[in-house]
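call fold(seq) -> C-alpha cells
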Amino acid sequence: MTLCIAWIRQEAKTNTKELVFATDSMLTGGGETWKHGVKLFELPRKDCLLCFAGETSKAYPLILNLQTAIQFNQKIMNQHTDLRQVLEYLCSTFTEVINSLVYELGDLEAYNPYTAAKFIFGGWNWQTQLLEFWEIYYGMDEKKFLYNGYDSTTARAYHMIGDHLPEAEELLMEELTNNGKRIQGSFDMEPFMVLSRMARDVEQYRPIDGALQVAKVYQSGSTEFFGVMWQSVKGKHTFLGRELNPYVKPQIRFVDPDSGTILDLELPKNIAKLNMDEYGNESEFIESCFPDGNIKPGLSDKEKEMLLAIFKDNSYKSFLTSLADNEILQHAENNEQQ
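ret:
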C-alpha cells in the first residue's frame, strides 16, 4: 500500500500559500511490491496534480484513461474552466471505466476491486482564487466515485490516504508540537517530515517504503516537481521514486528529507577562501551575492542559477587548465629523459 498526503503550506516570510503533495513509492498488487513506482502525476492540464493509494492494477488504468480523456477535451484542458468541473469530469471518467470491470476471480464480500484504490486530486482554481483538493473514492451504494473537499481557506487543511493513518496523525501532532504549533499555526513541511520518518522505518511501517515523491501547485496556476535526497541529505538524488544518474539529472530542485527544506541549488554558504581573481568580470556579481563572504539571504532563483553556472564554468576551465599544465609538464619530463 502506501501513504499519500496533501496539505496547504503557508510560506512563513511572504504568507503565500502552496498546495503540496507527497507520497512514498511503494506499488502493490498481485502479490508483488515495487519500491520505485510513480504515484504522483501531473495531468495534461498543468494546474493540478493527482496521487493514489491502493492497488496499482486498479489505479493505473483509471489514471491512464483520465490523462488521455483530458488531453483530447479542449474545454477541460482550458485552465479557465473551473477546477471543480475538472473534478466532476474526473469522477465521471473513473466511474465509467471502473463500472466496465468484470471481476471473475471470487467473492466480492472477501475482496472488492471497486474500492481497492483511493485518490487525492487538487490544484489552483482561478474561478474561486483558491487552492483546492479532494479525496476521491468509490461509493458502493451510489456505484460511482465520490469526493470530499478541502481548500486554502481552511485552517490546517490536509488529508491523508493509505496505511498507518492513526500513527501518521499522531506523528503529525508531535511535529506540530515540536514546532510550537500544537494549538494554532499553519503547516510548513510537517506532513512531509511525518512521511519521511515513516518511509525510513520499514520495520514498523512496512507498507510505506521507497524514496519520497513531492510536487507543489502554486497560486500562479503552475506546478513544480521536486527530487528528494534519499535516504538523507547526504544520500542519492532521486526523482519520482527512482535513483538518478548524478551526471544526467533533470533541472529540478531537491528536498532534504531530514529537514523538509529545499536545497538552494547547492550553493556554498561562505566563499571567504575563494580566489576572486580567477573570476574576472564575474567577480563583482559574485561579491554582491556574497557580501563579507557569506551568501546573501533572499537571492532570487535567477541569481542562484547564474552563480551556479559561473562556478561550474570556472571549475571546468580550471580542469582544462590543469590538464594542459600536466601535458606541458609531461612533455618537459620526456625531453629531459631524451
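The helical segments are 56-71, 74-77, 83-98, 165-178, 190-199, 283-289, 301-337.
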